[in-house]
Amino acid sequence: MKGIDLSRAYAADVVEPLLTRHFPDLRYATARLGSGSDMLGLDDEISRDHDWGCRLTLLLPNAEHARVATVHAMLEAELPPEYAGHRVRFPVTWNQTESHQVEVATVTDFAASRLGARPAGDHTLTTKGWLTVTGQGVLEVTAGAVFTDTTGELGPLRDALRWYPAEVDRFVLATAWIRIGMRMSFIGRTAERGQELQSRILSAALAGELMELSYLVHRRWAPYAKWREALLPAKESLTEPLRRLLDSDDWRDRERAVLDAAELLLKVQRENGRPGPETAAARFFDRPFWTIADEVQSSLLAEVTDAGLKAMPHGVGAVGQWADSDPLLSNPDNRAKLAEIYDNLTGGLTS
User: Fold this and answer.
1) Based on C-alpha coordinates, what's the Rg of the chain?
2) Which of 214, 291, 325, 351 has the fewest CB atoms nearer than 10 Å to its CB?
3) pLDDT at 314
């Protein structure tokens, strides 16, 4: 049984009947949101060794905030010890007590706990809020299964988080191209100077950057590293150039692999309504190396009018594009604090 199937049955057979009995007037949503491979439908037998089982997200309308504790206490008292052969109360990595794993919160409080930014009443985020979310954080709100929803709020919130607003999209996408262009010429330069190992390390890093770019041009949120390939957009067309980039013994073929992948993704970018030149390739000054043409990122930034975004230093994008600490990025509270960095970089012009 997949984790989502267990959660769905647990909600229908146990949790929802308890809610109907004790709170017949309560509007709520039951879902399997939050962390865990099973939330993405990617769990297997190995996944069951931790944080897997009778897990559920129970969300109330924002106006019902005062009832969250009452509902949680009722579940603590009324839930059975087991369901379908699985323990109902068990420890998880963030809470080692024997507790039930029905997370009860209001819609907005739950979203804020995952995003690190609090949606407004119309479910929108500020520009700084968008820049401090991660793809995994958004997926923990939007990617899981919803079983019942009478809140009137969860659906609109998930719709609002479908993708970045247009100007933030251009800004983040331009940053991804800048990152690739700044290091692409180093593949050949390091190899020619006898640093073959460094050339291969740079090639592997660029393979990861191209995977990130694929998510961006397809307007898809990227999960955390373990599942990046599993959900990769355009995986069929990107696999061949990415394998060449990782496997080839000739730096020229690795460089060409970057360009081949870049041309594929630039074409998707144009087809999806964003600007871009006809080709991604440009010579790196007078050297025998290739890089990404300046027009790729400049055409995107030309559509950015937000004062805070325009004041940002060259190549600074969303937090995941300049911070590479898993403990930092996986903690929404830490990401919320990073919003101050954008104020420092722009003199307070970001909103």
Assistant:
1) 23
2) 325
3) 85
Cβ atoms within 10 A of the Cβ of 297, count? Answer: 24
| Segment holding 310, helix H or strand E | helix 307-310
**Residue whose C-alpha is closest to residue 104's, from 142, 55, 158:** 55
Per-residue pLDDT at 1? 86
Let me know: does 262 contact 180? Beta carbons within 8 Å: yes
Backbone angles phi, psi at 55, to 5 degrees: -105, 145
Instruction: Give the integer Cα–Cα distance in Å for 262 and 206.
Output: 11
Determine whether 193 is exposed, middle or buried from the number of CB atoms within 10 Å of its CB (0-12, 13-18, 19+).
exposed
- Residue 259 to residue 138: CA distance in whole angstroms: 30
Residue whose entry in the numeric block shows the structure tokens 């004041």: 311
Closest by CA position to 33, among listed 3, 12, 62: 3
pLDDT recorded at residue 346: 87
CB atoms closer than 10 angstroms to residue 231: 18
CA distance 255 to 340: 38
Structure tokens at 10: 């647990």
Q: Phi and psi for 156 in degrees, rounded to 5?
A: -60, -35
CA 312 to CA 308: how far, in whole Å?
Answer: 7
Q: Provide the token pair at 348.
A: 């307070």
- Whole-number Cα distances in Å, 139 to 36, 160, 206, 231, 330: 11, 13, 24, 12, 12
- Tens of pLDDT, residue by residue over 142-160, are 999 999 999 999 999 999 9
The residue count of the chain comes to 351
